[in-house]
Amino acid sequence: MQTTSTPSRALSRAQWQALEADHERRADDATAGHRARRGEQVAHPVEDFLFTYYPFRPALLRRWHPGPGVRLEDAAALPRAQWKHYRAEGADLELDVAAYVEARGRTLEFVRDLITATATRPAQLGCFGLHEWAMVYQQTPEQVRHADWPLRLGADATDDVVRGQQIRCTHFDAFRFYTPPARSLNLLQPTRETQVALEQPGCLHAGMDLYKWAMKLAPAIPGDLVLDCFDHARAIRELDMRASPYDLSALGYEPVRIETPAGRAEYAAAQRGFADRGQALRGRLVGAIDAVTGAVTDAVPDEATGAAPGAPPA
Questions:
Q1: What are the residue ranges of helices labelled H in 120-203?
Q2: How many whole angstroms separate alpha carbon 89 and alpha carbon 102?
Q3: Between the N and C ends of the chain, which has fewer C-beta atoms within 10 Å?
Q4: pLDDT attached to residue 132
């Protein structure tokens, strides 16, 4: 992949360290509960998801990156100079755009293609979070993913809800966790190969994945955008589990009773809000990707994977 050069602007050491400190405080506030529970070996079915499902530790979220085209003055002698894809320019430090694009070109293209395609489609608001119900369909209490938490309606009534609604999940990474008997009940049969063709902005999991893509593309994505994607994903996860079949009232989560018309209307309204906010984040992510790639004339595989262009990144 070939790129044009990215013009840089300089931040004094005082300026960029203030931005870094603000980022670290915001990240620490967002992860405090998870870090405390981890030390006590206590699991939380809602708040721990972003750290157990996605492979990013709180320490990585805490790292502030300015993104491309920003020169950090007097940073070359600091530990961040050892972070991958940075280069020194005298006493200063900046993202090594050419090396980054050479190494991550395929991932950049895949993520841009995926989120751009997703953004062009209308939001589908008729899934009602039934993916969580399909993940426990016809399971014994010991097999249920969050076995420490009871099902609100009990196993038989939960199965009745799955059978009584049209399940229409478009997201492969949710669909792949369906129980085997639930898969045939889904309107679509998503695969990894059809991911770009099927994802749509109403999907809560597609919205949560914006955090995944922002983190995967570090250090090219500015820190404020990464944290905005994280906050978006955390709020979505709360709705996801409030609408699930689990009774989490002991944790303070009021259920969204999608087995009722009122609950489905409540879910769709919240889903619409997340879809709109997700579209804004997709636009910002595309802008960040375009800022680092510049004028793309051809594509090459990622050095790390040797995969062909167009294949999903690892």
A1: 130-134, 154-164, 172-175, 180-183, 195-198
A2: 19
A3: C
A4: 96
